[in-house]
């Protein structure tokens, strides 16, 4: 029943036409979302406001209210536009593990392309068209497994939470490095030097063991330097164990 849906979702899904007034051609929700995304990309999420986006589009703030009724609506539209439709090739070939791996990498690329996405509060699961398309593609990756529908959803959510968490950590640390004018390699070495001055083998034997190698820098053990892929593979290992157990039932 469409009356149970917020108006911004009805508009995004094409279930309701926007109200029009005046001589100017109507703008579109996608134009509004793209303009807001450009401002956030360039200046950060804090720069986004109804009045600012109206000016970007050459309209009055009141005109914008015919399409988005609040700042929350504006965030919904710009978030959906930033995610966009998943690429046709994402998670559409290979076994379930290959598909979910590719889906996770593509999701990470979307977040890295628009870091402000991770600053938007999550108040409910996705309902907008593009985000729902990502959800569908993630579930499609798990479709051929013997998992229950709940387990497929939970597996996809586990991958999604890992991607968001690891990407947010990466962006926050990269931002700190950038503000200090140092590279990630320089920051790693500085961290190791500082840590070495604070710990000793009596109280922190395991940390000291790591310090005796290059485990805490990017020059550590070959094959595990990419922390994102390493962690993602361990997440998929866990799901794979569940898939194997269900297949043996």
Descriptive account of the structure:
- It is built from eleven helices and no strands.
- With 249 residues, it is mostly helical.
- It has two domains: 2-83, Homeodomain-like (Arc Repressor Mutant, subunit A); 96-181 and 219-248, Tetracycline Repressor, domain 2 (Orthogonal Bundle).
- It is flat.
- 24% of the residues are buried.
CATH top level of the largest domain is: Mainly Alpha
User: Percent of residues in helical segments?
Assistant: 55-70%
Query: C-alpha Rg, in Å?
Result: 23 Å
Order of helices and strands: HHHHHHHHHHH
Structural class: mainly alpha
Shape: flat
Key terms:
249 residues, mainly alpha, Arc Repressor Mutant, subunit A, Tetracycline Repressor, domain 2, flat
SSE layout:
Blueprint: H1 7-12, H2 29-43, H3 50-57, H4 61-64, H5 71-83, H6 96-113, H7 129-142, H8 149-180, H9 184-198, H10 205-211, H11 227-248
Helix pairs in contact: 2-3, 2-5, 6-7, 6-8, 6-11, 7-8, 8-11
Task: Summarize the entry for a quick read.
The chain is mostly helical. The protein has helices at 7-12, 29-43, 50-57, 61-64, 71-83, 96-113, 129-142, 149-180, 184-198, 205-211, 227-248.
């Amino acid at each position: 029943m469409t009356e149970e849906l917020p108006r911004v979702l009805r508009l995004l899904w094409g279930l309701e036409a926007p109200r029009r007034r005046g001589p100017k051609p109507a703008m579109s929700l996608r134009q509004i979302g793209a303009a807001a995304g450009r401002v956030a990309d360039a200046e950060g999420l804090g720069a986004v406001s109804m009045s600012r986006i109206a000016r970007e589009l050459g309209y009055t703030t009141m005109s914008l209210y015919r399409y988005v009724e609040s700042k929350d609506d504006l965030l919904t539209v710009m978030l959906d536009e930033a995610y966009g439709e998943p690429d046709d090739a994402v998670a559409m070939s290979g076994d379930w593990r290959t598909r979910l791996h590719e889906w996770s990498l593509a999701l990470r690329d979307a977040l890295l392309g628009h870091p402000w996405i991770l600053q938007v509060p999550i108040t409910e699961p996705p309902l907008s068209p593009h985000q729902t398309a990502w959800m569908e593609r993630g579930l499609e990756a798990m479709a051929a497994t013997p998992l229950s529908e709940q387990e497929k959803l939970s597996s996809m959510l586990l991958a999604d939470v890992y991607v968001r968490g690891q990407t947010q950590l990466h962006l926050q640390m990269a931002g700190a490095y950038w503000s200090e004018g140092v590279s990630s390699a320089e920051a790693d070495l500085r961290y190791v030097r500082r840590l070495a001055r604070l710990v000793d083998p009596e109280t922190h034997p395991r940390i000291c063991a790591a310090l005796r190698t290059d485990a805490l820098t990017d020059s550590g053990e070959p094959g595990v330097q990419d922390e994102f892929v390493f962690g993602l593979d361990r997440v998929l290992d866990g799901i794979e164990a569940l898939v194997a157990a269900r297949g043996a039932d």
